[in-house]
Amino acid sequence: MHIRAMARAENRPVTVHMIAEHVGVSPAAVSTVLANRHEERRLAPATVERIRQAVRELGYVPNVAARRLRAHDPEVRHMELGILTSFEAPLFLVSRALRQLQQAVDERSGPDRRFSVTIDMFHAGRLREMPGLLNASRFNGAIITNTLPQDDAFLKSTTLPYAVVVQGRRLANYCCVLETPGEVGQRAAEIMLARGRKNLAVITPTLLTESTADRAEAFCAAVRTATGSEPARVTAEDFTPCSGATAVQEHLRAQPKCDGLFAVTDTLALGAFHALKKVGRRVPEDVAVVGVGDHEHADFFEPPLTCVGPVYDRVVAEIVTLLFNLMSRRRVRPTEVFVAPIIARRVSA
Amino acid sequence: MHIRAMARAENRPVTVHMIAEHVGVSPAAVSTVLANRHEERRLAPATVERIRQAVRELGYVPNVAARRLRAHDPEVRHMELGILTSFEAPLFLVSRALRQLQQAVDERSGPDRRFSVTIDMFHAGRLREMPGLLNASRFNGAIITNTLPQDDAFLKSTTLPYAVVVQGRRLANYCCVLETPGEVGQRAAEIMLARGRKNLAVITPTLLTESTADRAEAFCAAVRTATGSEPARVTAEDFTPCSGATAVQEHLRAQPKCDGLFAVTDTLALGAFHALKKVGRRVPEDVAVVGVGDHEHADFFEPPLTCVGPVYDRVVAEIVTLLFNLMSRRRVRPTEVFVAPIIARRVSA
DNA sequence: GCTTGCACCTAAATCGATTTAGCTTTTCTC
DNA sequence: GAGAAAAGCTAAATCGATTTAGGTGCAAGC
Predict the structure, then answer these.
(1) Taking residues A243-262, what's their average pLDDT?
(2) Could B78 and A63 be called an inter-chain contact, meaning their C-beta atoms sit closer than 8 Å?
(3) Does nucleic acid strand D have an atom less than 7 angstroms from the CB of A42?
(4) Which of A284, B4, B239, B307 is buried deepest, with most CB atoms within 10 A?
(5) What torsion, rounded to 10 degrees, do the Cα atoms B43, B49, B53, B54 define?
(6) Considering only CA atoms, which of B317, B295, B305, B308 is closest in space to residue B92?
(7) Is the pLDDT of residue A2 over 50?
(8) By C-alpha distance, which of B317, B314, B321, B304 is closest to B341?
(9) Which 314-333 residues of chain B touch chain A by CB within 8 A?
(10) What percent of chain B has pLDDT over 70?
(11) How many other C-beta atoms can be found within 10 angstroms of the C-beta atom of residue A124?
(12) In the structure, how far is the CA atom of residue B42 from the C1' atom of nucleotide C6, in angstroms?
């Protein structure tokens, strides 16, 4: 064991102890230098220099977990909250969640209770690889959002052993907050039908989350029920206006009679606007457009975009409430909270 | 000391040890239950229940730092990187930084080297209150952005003892990446002047970062030099289009002859569009508008917004490179990296 | 009666860094 | 030259949780 330890030592992370050995002093001396307190603790300048040299040479990287543990004041309890989202998703819901969560946290912080809130990203579909998720060594509580079906499957298979609220997805073993299933698509369809639109299409990105899929499904179902015919499906590469524009432009070529577009996100609707202008069709006279999400700038689109969707601040408020209830164990059972969509009637439909 | 310890114990965070004492078992047993491994380790079901009960009653919150330290594989070095930004600022630069940083990190990760990247927010002007900043117990490296002058003053006064890259600000004791001072405002002025605009205004938010202040200054200086007259200053409450619209509308009332607007962020330009439409003035025929930042949707504004500004991907690339150089100690001296602005000539000016 | 095996639990080491109290050795003072 | 003070450093405890190796007592088997 001793020999193996030596053998492996080559590539091991450098510790204070190793530096100390290398220089021929105690770990205490090294630590003193690292904290820049050698003056007050009266280390000889020559020693300080030798230690500094070694620190540089060996490429020392402090272990923050160890430092945190040590630095931590035993009088205050510290809770780590994370907002977990995928890189690929837009950040606007996240930033709202963050703001509200921070506010909730500021209210609850005191001399004996502090919180930290961070945003942590995972690659879509690879949530399971996030370090510290499973062994609960990273968070005391987490909000998980923008998951793909693979991530959902992972979550379903293991109940994370701390407070978790999942957004936009129904999972039996977690507390979930999401828009009322079916409603968004339904309302969008109603708007279109009330305007007498016949040749409808729904624009979705390639990667569908549960929410975006549900919106498209419900829209199609409602249209089918009312008119007997199925809306066209337009698939954009991702969430960006650019990909939306490309997809819609192609669709308009194939289906010039199209007179109503439902975009499952506002960014795609923005792309649709662009494509429509390019081929000289007016919104909403020629083509009605409905978006989802209430993009913070939707009112400033040209024309202002009519949106259907849950009030995100409500969604976030529910999430935050649930999270704190879970953490204080006031509610332990998994729950589903639905937030009904509202319609922001503007100009585009 | 013993008595005081007892006295304080009331309100102390609950530890595994305390639970163990409360139940009358060893910490090992409690830990076993917390990890849900009581089956394989053959704890009596009754004991498990008693422990669970106590965990609930006492409101146990695990100390993640301790868990991390313990869970940590001594073969791999783990580096914690943070992107620190203020709540009040828009996230779009942050999200780009995050994506590029994550990519860099993915490339450098290996079996013996892992990274985690998080976004951490501070209240504008209160960076100093962020826990773990000063005692280096949170990050091995950090990108700091969207600071206010108070934050800058704080940073100037203490050199953080780890790898730090500051964005958008010149601080002698740090590595900084920012747009070339003076250039953005100058270019914006040139565009306006080349179009023969005379009655110019610059729109800024109330809270000015160094960059936004510099843009406005340089714009005014360039205009003053060329024409001898000073552009008007329009102050919006914050960065939102909404506040921009309000401010511009007011300005137009006071200065109906205004024919050129320079907005120090794209979101403010979007608000300006709105205000201009409302009073029936055409862009760019009546009023030219120039924005900064190259908003990811600037091309989809109506009309597409002409932007001046650094290529953000360049900025971020420089930041990431510097950060890794600092961490591997390939470059230790503070540096300033300037990224020259480019002009995205679209329709609005 | 003695071993074996099982059920159930604990002592102690460990993760890495920091700090406090204290130990040598040298230098200074009278 | 004795005692005090200063300089320069270290041993060991600590932060909180986890795990490994091992102990104890009881029932079963021969």
Answers:
(1) 96
(2) yes
(3) yes
(4) B307
(5) -30
(6) B295
(7) no
(8) B314
(9) 327-329
(10) 97
(11) 18
(12) 11
